[in-house]
Each structure stands twice: as structure tokens, then as C-alpha cells.
Design a protein that fits this description.
Nucleotidyltransferase, domain 5; 8 strands; alpha/beta; 17% strand; 12 helices; 40% helix
Length: 287
């Protein structure tokens, strides 16, 4: 990925289509498996996979949640007029795993920070008044408590692993009622950074000891009535941990990530992958 240079400093991109097409073409060429590039009847496609990848990243950049709404906008582009809406959706979904491959490959290009931060944010699927009446994602989503807003919500939780600079290394989606610590092991899979910062939700001795056995050092603030809290809760560490909250705010402001109109797991995962890849690209300079 010599055309990408990690900057460790986020800057919201103002892409033009020519630049975005060049970036997606290079990413597709470097990371798409040959078996997918040369699959049966691929030469008969009216719109290339590279063009679809451009449109998916453009959708995330524009903050458009609805595939139906975005399809109408696609009609303004030459490639977008060549596909029907149902065909566009069917072609876009298989690209989800390609976006995952690209995102994972980019993880190897970032600077080797020794500290990462873990936290979660809610992904509500309806207004609180409908918590017990909704049937969206029935059997998958459930009701959980949002401590920061002091309300119960129906939906999912998105757990994230973020570097100090704000780059998103990994994410895990769970039902809203799942406690943060239950997603920790999956979230830290293949994590190379040994030091982890977390909030009071991870203040559990058993979790800290289990992570220590795996080579991780977990730091969480202590409650004010606990012995040694003043010395332990150093203001610099507290400020570093709050970095992830700033990143969550950026994801909400730029991409409206806490709201979704997806009604299937594939659509939900595709939207998250689109947003995270687009957000992570903001940490790279393009040659």
C-alpha cells in the first residue's frame, strides 16, 4: 500500500470522484482475490466492482443511511443509471467482505502504538416508547440501558477498539443487554497493543487478571471511594481514555452512525463496514 501514507492525524476528506475512483481502483487491485475478479460472467457486468466500491464509500461520506435514497442519487452518475435498485443492492452486499479485507490490511499500515482504548456506544432501532412493541430484528436485538443518556433502548451495542490517534482497529456488535466485558475477548482478537484503557464498566478484577495472562495490561479508573483513587486516576490517563468518546462523537456527527434504517443483518453490517473504512481512510494521505 505504498500509495497510502499513515498520518496518525484525522482530517475529514473532501473527496472528488476522480480521486475516490483512483483510491478504490488501487485498493481493489491490491486486495481483491483473483477468484472474485475472474468469477463467472463478470465481464458481462454493466457496472464494475470498482465502481460499486466507489459508490459505497461515497454513500458513507455523504452520510446517507437509506439504500433507496442513495440509489436515487446514483442516477446522477453514468454508472448508477445502468443498474436497477434491486440489482444494485444484490451487487453491493458481496462487496462487504472485500471492504473487511481492505480495512484489515490497512490496520498493518498504522504506527505501532502501545496503547489502545475500548468502549461501546448504543445503536437504537426505535424510539424508547416503542421498546416493547417493535419487531425489528426480533430474536437478535433486545433492550439495554444507556447510562450516558439515562434511558432504556431497544437495539444493539457497538463495541470498538481504537488507537490513541483515533484509528478504529476492530468492532463487535452485540445485543443491547450484553455487558461490555463479554465482548472484550473478541474485540481484542489479534490486537498487538499491550496496554488497554477502559472506563468504569470494565472495572472487574477477574477481567483484568484474565487479560494479564494473555499479555495485556488493563487500566480503568477507580471509584472515588476506593483506596488510592486519587493517585490512580491520573488526569493524563483520564484524558487519554476520553479520546474514544471524541471519536464516537465524530462518527455520529459525520456519519450519523447511531441511526440505521437497515432491516437485515447484512445491511447493518455493510453500513458499519462502509462507515468505518471511510472514517479510517481519513488517517491516510494519498499519493
Amino acid at each position: 500500500m505504498s500509495h497510502l501514507q499513515y498520518t496518525a492525524k484525522s482530517h475529514h476528506l473532501q473527496w472528488n470522484m476522480k480521486q475516490l475512483s483512483k483510491i478504490c481502483s488501487k485498493l481493489y487491485h491490491d486486495y481483491c482475490p483473483q477468484s472474485f475478479k475472474h468469477r463467472r460472467n463478470v465481464s458481462l457486468s454493466k457496472v464494475s466492482d470498482e465502481s460499486l466500491l466507489v459508490l459505497l464509500l461515497l454513500q458513507a461520506e455523504l452520510g446517507i443511511k437509506s439504500q433507496r435514497h442513495f440509489y436515487r442519487i446514483c442516477q446522477l452518475f453514468p454508472c448508477g443509471r445502468l443498474l436497477e435498485r434491486s440489482r444494485f443492492n444484490r451487487r453491493a452486499r458481496p462487496l462487504m467482505w472485500l471492504i473487511q479485507l481492505i480495512r484489515q490490511a490497512m490496520n498493518a499500515q498504522i504506527s505501532p502504538d502501545t496503547i489502545v482504548i475500548i468502549d461501546s456506544f448504543p445503536l437504537p432501532l426505535c424510539q424508547p416508547v416503542r421498546n416493547y412493541r417493535t419487531r425489528i430484528f426480533e430474536g437478535l436485538a433486545d433492550i439495554g440501558y444507556n447510562a450516558s443518556k439515562h434511558l432504556w433502548f431497544y437495539g444493539f451495542k457497538v463495541h470498538m477498539l481504537v488507537t490513541l490517534s483515533g484509528y478504529i482497529l476492530n468492532y463487535v456488535v452485540t445485543p443491547a443487554s450484553v455487558h461490555d466485558i463479554r465482548a472484550t475477548n473478541e474485540l481484542l482478537e489479534n490486537c498487538q497493543q499491550p496496554y488497554i484503557l477502559a472506563d468504569l464498566g470494565y472495572l472487574i478484577r477477574e477481567l483484568r487478571e484474565n487479560l494479564k495472562q494473555e499479555g495485556y495490561h488493563l487500566w480503568t479508573p477507580l471509584r472515588q471511594n476506593m483506596a488510592g483513587a486519587k493517585q490512580h486516576n491520573h488526569w493524563k490517563l483520564m484524558a487519554m481514555r476520553r479520546t474514544i468518546e471524541t471519536r464516537f462523537s465524530e462518527l455520529c456527527t459525520l456519519f450519523d452512525i447511531e441511526r440505521t434504517v437497515a432491516r437485515g443483518l447484512t445491511g447493518l453490517q455493510l453500513r458499519l463496514e462502509q462507515v468505518i473504512l471511510t472514517y479510517n481512510l481519513n488517517f491516510f494521505e494519498f499519493n
